[in-house]
Structures are given as C-alpha cells and as structure tokens.
Please model this.
Amino acid sequence: MMKKILLLCVVAFISIGIASAQKVDNSKIQDIKYRRSSLHTILLESDRFPFKDTVVAAYYKAPFPDKYNNHDVGEKSFNPKNYGINGDTTSTNIPKIIEKYLADKKVANLMVAKWFDRAEDGTFDMNLIGERGSYNASEMQAKIASNSARGLASLADAGEELIGNTFVVVSKLNFVKNEIPAKIAWEASKIATAKISNSMLRKVAEFTAEQVYNKAREGYSVWTTSYLYKLAWNDSISSIFYNDYWMDKNSIDLAKKEKFDNTDLFSLKFIGSEKSRSLVMGSFMEQRSAERLVEIATIRTIDNVYSKLQKKYDVFKTKTPLYTGDPITAKIGLKEGLDGGDKFEVLEQTIDKEGRTKYVRKGTIKVDGKQIWDNRYLAGQEQAADSTATTSNKPNLDRTFFKGSKDFYPGMLIRQIK
Model:
C-alpha cells in the first residue's frame, strides 16, 4: 500500500513539474532571441493619383515588418524620373531604374557599413553583429585584428546567418477607381458574348457579365508592387572585406577608408517582384471616413505584398518561434497571409561541431483554419470607419493555432513550406 502511495506522489510531482516547466517556457517565449533577416525599405515615388497624400502617409505610418531587423540606411524614397533610362519610367523599365538608383547611391555599401557600425573615420566594430546574432563581439574583433578571422566559425556563421540575409524592398503604390478596369473587362465580355449563337445562352451570359460588372465597379483599389533585392555576401567577398577594408580604432588607415568609399565590391541582386491589391469599399461621402478606409487598405496591402514575397521566394521566408507547444500556437496570422491548411516545418536550432548554426527539422504542422489570428492593421476598425460595414462574429484570438504532433515546445522555430 505504501509503495502505491509513494508511486502516486512521484507521478503527481513529475506532472506538476512538467506543467510548471511548460508554464515558465510560455511566459518567457517573448524573450527568446532568434536570428532574423534584415530589411531596408524604399518608396518609389509616383505621379498624382486619387488620395495620393493619404496613401503615401499610410506607407510611412505602416509598422515596420516585425519579423525583420530594421536595417534602414538613409533615403526612404526617390523619384524614378531622375534615374529613368533615356527618360523612360514605364513599368517595364522599373527594375532597371531601381538598379541604377541602388548603384548610384551605393546602397549595398551603406548596408555593409551599417552591419559593421562604420564610423566617420572609417573604422568598424562588431557590436551590431554581436547584438543581433548573440555572438561575442570582442572575440570576433580580436580575431580579425590578429589576422586569424578565417578560422573563426562565428564570423562565417554571421556572414551566412545575418549579413547574407539582408534585403531591400522597393515599393510602388497606386490608387485606382475600380470602374476603369471593370469597364474594360465588361466591354471585352460583351464582344465575347456577342459570338454566342444560341440566343438564350447569349442573354444569360450578357446578364451575368453585367452583374459582375456592377459589383466589380464599386469602390477603389490600392495597389502595391514591390521589388525584392538581396545583398550579395559570400566567402570571397567576406575575405576581401576583412583583409582590405577592415580597421578598428587601434589601426586607422586612411588608404583603407578610401578603398571602402570607392569600392564596387558590394552589390544587390534582384530576386523578383510581387503585386498586391486591397479593395476599398464603403461610403466615400465623408472625407474623414474615406481617408481612414484608404489608410487601412494601404497598410494591409503593404503587409500582404510582403507575405506574397515570402511565399514565392524561399530566401525571404521568415522564421517564427512557437508561442506554445500544447496546444501548438504562434504569433502570426492573417497579416502574414495565413490560410487554413498552410504547412510549416518545425525547426530546432542547433550548433554543429564547427560552431556553426544549423536548423534541424523535427516535424511539420498545419494551420487550423478555424483559429487564425486576425492581426492585420487595425483589425475590426474598418467597421468603425465605415458605417455601412457589417460586424464579424469571428472569435477574438491573440495567436494562431496549428494541428500536428504534441512533441513540440515553445521557442522551436517554424517556417512555411510549399
């Protein structure tokens, strides 16, 4: 009898310990430090369009994407007319215009300089890299100074994990009345339906096309087109940087400073582009309400274009820590473009025998379509801005739930897969 009582006590003690550990982990999850990609954002200025001031103001008001380090390096916008090839600023020429701007302004050099805290005298340090990557900055600087940087795993790791995951996103905004594209589509459909020989089928097709037009012509659309660039960084570039340009406060060399100022070693590689559209519906009778609706739609379309870039280009994908392991939850949602059934891999961050960071897949999970967090900008407040909008009965969540194994724990990283 005593053995049974003792066994029950041990089981109860272990259960309480496990529950307590889970609780402690959950409470500390927001303090988990994981390595993020870094991002600089630029606005491509546009000609006049309806509500332009509101749209542009909303762009600057939009919260910085919280899954990235803010790596801003100066100018936040530029006029494409100043960089148009032969004055051509049409949409097909935009990537060339952006590349000319990035090269003329030496944006890649500025991004490298920021990584190494470059001072006015041209000296560098490792403080920012140490902070963002949880490295020993003093050890790294000492190794560089003693010309033994090549053998230091943390430098190679920092290059791969941090510097090599530095991006620029250049965005172009537009705001158009839906009537224009809807009318074009309707006119095209009328030509197509006129070719239907059966009169009854033709009338049905004409009626359907008109109904679609009447619905599509309502309101406005905010369009965001974003172009993604990645900082080129590899072993050869790293070696040249540390050997030819690096200097700290103890080894100031004006020749090295001039070399870095004038080098074309650093560049930004074009990865691709994406478009996003947000409908602006509701009453435009009141200027204040209209501006509020436009602001919400603009910021949401900016968030949406980031999520589309992440889904399309693996190099731009972010990692997110699990908030809880049972149930499986994470602090991402509709802002990141989540849909029910979206699949994620669960990763455990490890260090290999050479001291470099590795991510080991421990399983996969899927988004629970019934429990997706609406973390979009001012979620729910579009109803307040538009008196004609209907209210939603969706549950008020502060995280998204996933389906999968129960062998995961808070702090493990998840990354979306196709």
